[in-house]
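On clarity, I found the account of how folds are encoded harder to follow than it need be. Since the whole study asks how a given chain folds, the encoding of that fold should be made plain. For the editor and my fellow referees, an illustration may be useful. An entry of this sort, consisting of the sequence and the corresponding backbone structure tokens, reads as follows:

:::
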Amino acid sequence: MTVDNDARVSMKSLQERLRRFADERDWDQFHSPKNLSTALIVEAAELLEHFQWLTQDQSTNLSREKLLEVEAEIADIFIYLLRLSDKLGIDMLDAATRKIARNEEKYPAEKVKGSAKKYTEY
């Protein structure tokens, strides 16, 4: 299913679709938070594998074929993360909004601009 700008899928509708997908296959029994977290990390490692030996420049200039492979891995990660958040009752958009606000406090732009130091180092 291709989604265009006029018909964006909401997080909630995507979670519902994933729930149905799992239910229709009787897979919900396998979707514990532990198992979903494990699957998420496996997919993240598969994403990393695409970049493992590339230079910084190469990693930002992927071929169309490689980009499609990376896209598929990112989709897998997103799906597992969305499923995990659904199982735990976490609203990812709210959680991300709160986390960004905390990061803005921990990393004030005037103190950290241009620096990669952790907040405990300044």
Notes: The two ends are 47 Å apart (CA to CA). The CA atoms of residues 33 and 87 lie 7 Å apart. Helices lie at 11-24, 33-51, 56-59, 64-88, 92-106, 109-112.
